[in-house]
Amino acid sequence: MSRKTKFFGLLILLAAALTTPVLAERADRDKPVNLESDRMNADDVKKTSVFEGRVVLTQGTMVIRADRLTVRQDSQGFQFGTAVGNPASFRQKREGFDEIIEGEAERIEYDGRADRVEFFNRARLRRDCGDDVVGNYISYDAKTEQFSVQSAKGTAAGKDERVRAVIMPKNPKAQSDKAPCAPLVSKPAAANPR
């Protein structure tokens, strides 16, 4: 295998680190990963790539935007990624639903080994049906299909920030112009293979 082929293969593998978000559209996984940035540095030995400056990663319906995106793969083949921005953001269509999920934070980390996505500092998750969760830290464990949100303690302003959530009614009659939100966790598990 040529060095160039190895290099591009590594980039695709590493870029995949952030392409398996939580409630992702399964069809996105079969789409090509496209990356744009002002600069990129790759280390084939460490299996790490760093993209900097107006970074945009797209794959199907998923879009990640960041100031800096670092992706790596460990010796067992698990992928890890960190997107940093002011804020870093993602947007993706949810599997099986006509619904978009958006998230943002100063730092978004994906751990392929633990199958977990974490949002740090000014974290926010929204669904286009109106649900909105804000906190300093949001974690989603895809293995258990559970998420948690934490507030910030002792912020620079000297006050504690609280977790904020807006949950729209599920009854279509209670909502005049928006469709009800689909359940955040879809069952059965077989419908969402990992």
- Main sheet attributes: strand count, strand direction, barrel closure: 10 strands, antiparallel
CATH class, anyone?
Mainly Beta
Mean pLDDT: 75
Tally of individual domains: 1
Give a count of the beta strands, DSSP E runs of length 2 or more. Answer: 10
CATH H-level homologous superfamily name: Lipopolysaccharide (LPS) transport protein A like domain
CATH architecture: Sandwich
Count of individual helical segments: 1
Helix share, percent = under 10%
Write up what this structure looks like.
The chain is mainly beta and 194 residues long. It has one domain: lipopolysaccharide transport protein A fold, CATH 2.60.450. The protein is 7% helix and 46% strand. The protein has 1 helix and 10 strands; from the N terminus they run αββββββββββ. Strands 1, 2, 3, 4, 5, 6, 7, 8, 9 and 10 form a 10-stranded antiparallel sheet that branches. The longest helix is centred in the first third of the chain and has 13 residues, at 3-15.
